[in-house]
Amino acid sequence: MPERMLTIGELAHRAGVATSALRYWEELGLLPAPSRVSGQRRYPESATTLVGIILLLRDVGFSLAEQKKLMASNGAAPEERRELSLRKLDELDERIAKARAAREAVEHSLRCPHENFFDCPNFAGLVAARLAGRPLSEAHAHRAS
After folding, report:
1. In this predicted model, what pLDDT tens digit does every residue of 119-141 receive, in sequence order?
2. Residue of 97, 94, 80, 28 whose CA lies nearest to 58
3. Domains of the chain, with CATH numbers?
4. Of 14, 33, 76, 87, which is most buried, counting CB atoms within 10 Å of its CB?
5. Which of 65, 71, 54 is nearest to 15 (CA)?
6. pLDDT recorded at residue 141
7. What is the 3-state secondary structure (H, E, C) of the chain?
8. Nearest to 144 by CA among 122, 117, 124
9. Beta strand pairing status for 35-37 and 5-7?
């Protein structure tokens, strides 16, 4: 039994994305070029899963270029996929550390006994550390010790 074909509007609706996103991903090579019926794009129903993969990889933090490499390496180049995934883990760890430091700084601002947090010695120390070129995560860790 042949697979049901979807218009670009149907695929966009099923996946919850704009038709322009589908066209762009097609242009980038993330989505294979669909067949055409009377000039109108027709995607196999299985393209819905492929769009879901693109969305999931985006949510995980992979750029479109990284997604293209991952999709191209799937099955054919497991080492390249592994290397991309390890780099993404490093990036995520860095973002998590930054977010934790930011959260701790905001939590401190809520607990700080100073009426104006600009008067807080802890805040002043963080400002000085940032001006010295240290990232918030490092500056905050230094202030906390």
Report:
1. 888 888 888 888 998 887 777 65
2. 28
3. 5-73 (1.10.1660.10), 86-144 (no CATH)
4. 14
5. 54
6. 59
7. CCCCEEEHHHHHHHHCCCHHHHHHHHHHCCCCCCEEECCEEEEECCHHHHHHHHHHHHHHCCCHHHHHHHHHHCCCCHHHHHHHHHHHHHHHHHHHHHHHHHHHHHHHHHHCCCCCHHHCHHHHHHHHHHHCCCCHHHHHHHHHC
8. 122
9. unpaired
Look up residue 73 and give its amino acid.
S
| Backbone torsions φ then ψ of 17, nearest 5 degrees | -125, 165
pLDDT, mean of residues 10-39: 94
Nearest to 123 by CA among 135, 138, 106, 137: 106
Burial tier of 51 (Cβ tally within 10 Å: 0-12, 13-18, 19+): buried
- Kindly compute the dihedral angle of the four CA atoms of residues 100, 104, 106, 111, in this order, to the nearest 10 degrees: 160
Q: What is the mean pLDDT of residues 70-79?
A: 78
The CA distances from residue 76 to 20, 28, 84, 86, 133, in Å, are 30, 20, 14, 18, 43
Assess whether pLDDT exceeds 50 at residue 145. Answer: no
> Which residue in this structure is represented by tokens 């969305």?
55
